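Suppose a colleague, Dr. K., hands you the sequence of a protein chain of 195 amino acids and asks what its three-dimensional shape might be. Before reaching for any lab equipment, you can write down a predicted structure in token form. Begin with the sequence itself:
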Amino acid sequence: SSSKWVRLNVGGTYFVSTRQTLCREPKSFLCRLCCQDGPELGSDKDETGAYLIDRDPTYFGPILNYLRHGKLIINKELAEEGVLEEAEFYNIASLVRLVKERIRDNENRTSQGPVKHVYRVLQCQEEELTQMVSTMSDGWKFEQLISIGSSYNYGNEDQAEFLCVVSRELNNSTNGIVKEPSEKAKVRRLLGCID
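The predicted structure, expressed as tokens, is then:
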């Protein structure tokens, strides 16, 4: 009982930690199990002297690491809900709050949906460029200008033609389906030189 090191058998997997680590949360199950004088929780020990805990060892790693360094680190293959369940079982209130915050943040990020980019390529003549760029609105931004030569001849003047690439970010939370304004009239109004 006076040893600095404690051996735990969690669902058949052994973990070793210090009493100081296990007592970081004084009201926790682990502290009550092995850190108080005359532990208030009676627990069986296996033949090696390890405390027997009938819980999933997969989710115990993040619990123990949190007690060691105070940071919530969850491997990608572990479900946060599983870590939350174990944090609640072991009665580690600060960890319960952290995991709930992370779950809430992830849900908010997912509900916002992915940001998608829509690109448009517009053909316009040299004299229309200034008007087109100055009238872009509704989130459209200029990406690239490509000269495609001078195929039109008005009177005696050759008119340079360009392809103008514009883009817009779309972020929509409707079941992950991105809706984009596709009406030509709206795009004409926004950009001023389609067709």
